Amino acid sequence: MSWHRSMAIAERVVRQVLRDRRSLGLILVAPLLVMALVGGSFSGQSVVLDRTAPALIATFAMFFTFMLTGVSFLRERSQGTLERLVTTPVSRADILVGYLLGFLLFALVQSTIVLLYTVLVLDVAYQGDLLQVFVLLMVLTIASISTGIFVATFARNEFQVVQFIPVVLAPQVFVSGIMVPVETMPTVLRLLANVVPLRYAVDGMRAIMLQGLGLGDVITELAALAIFAAVMLVAAAFTVRRT
Amino acid sequence: MASMESGVPAVDVADLSFSYGDREVLKGLSIQVGRGTIYGLLGANGSGKTTFIRVLVGLMKPGSGSVKVLGEDPSPKLTEHVGYMPQLNALYQELTVRNNVDFFARMYGMNDRRKRKTAVDEAISVVGLSDRAGDGIQSLSGGMRQRVSLAIALVHSPSLLLLDEPTVGLDPELRAAFWDHFRQLASAGTTILISSHTMDDAAHCDRLAFLQTGKIIAQDSPAELRKATGQPDSTLEDAFLYFVRKGRDNVLA
Q1: Which one of A186, B50, B138, B224 counts the least CB within 10 Å of its CB?
Q2: Cα angle at B218 between B214 and B222, to 5 degrees?
């Protein structure tokens, strides 16, 4: 693996998003709008808002990195740049690490903005350590970026990437305990909840942000997320050079 | 390590066949390209030129036959010695001309910032886009994009250039400038394999292979190919048609 090549890919990914105003708006403004709506609809119900806000921060991080990576990688393939890229000495690891670094940056910026809005404007009872929140989100984002790269292999156009949302993301939102506690769900859904990464991210975020626990206290959630991230990284590595 | 010995052909292909499913696209091709020469693959659309170049660059595995590029089987480690210009422009639309060329220079392992800048400037200058280096790809014409694509193939000074229809969409003046540069590169030892469907390009090559439906119907120097028609004033187009008809007559016979 070449660190130089990975950095060049990361820089390029960042540059591409920065020059694409709509994507930039999608990353930075859209989550704020949703949070504002959530804040408005839960006004006067601070307990519900406190439980929902950390879960939504994790959901946004996963959703936007999945979408952006999926579409970016699809473009890389459809514009022919991936074909050109694989005729250079670049390795699978170079490409994966480059994409991870580039999109992790946006995920962190987005999470910081949403977090600040949640705490300062929506006044969510926040107790945890920001750094620990970021570590948890970072592992979730690695899983999400890898999933985006993997899924892009099976899409022929951007419309098809969007069609993966109901398959890959929506079920996670419903079974992760964001709206209804996992414990109250039917057995089948509880079992499903055990195998989706968002559930562990939501539990971990709530534990850190609301209860003020540390990463050591959410080691199970962190380990589960790391396993998902590792599995999806391997899956992405298998497909990343496929033109 | 890729062989840089002048005795080893830059491209040595023997009896190469390749199929997409049941459709045979390359049928027993044998080609040798000597170092420092310009070799042209000439044929109509769908004759197998692009597939042949994609096999050489390692994007496709040959169905059968032997393929040696710079003395080795096509592989990722060979790519730093090979410059590839695909038929599709394959550029990052959101980035500038300089960003694109610089990015691929970094992919080719040009890590020294100062040397890379010199090489990027030179490649952009060769294709006549110095004054547009800071412009986004989306603001360029089709011909200009083609030139950026060529600059990327040239930036790391490869010993073998594989160019898939590099002159499509270029005006005559620029086409002539490209060929002057290709000749300079070949004189300095770079081997160039170029695909085209125009006879104008063919005339500039040291050797030519005429391709038709995945088969080589003739290969030699342009002068010899013209001579083979038996007409003293024949053009390369006449020669191409002569071999196409000859092949058809042989099949009918």
Answers
A1: A186
A2: 125
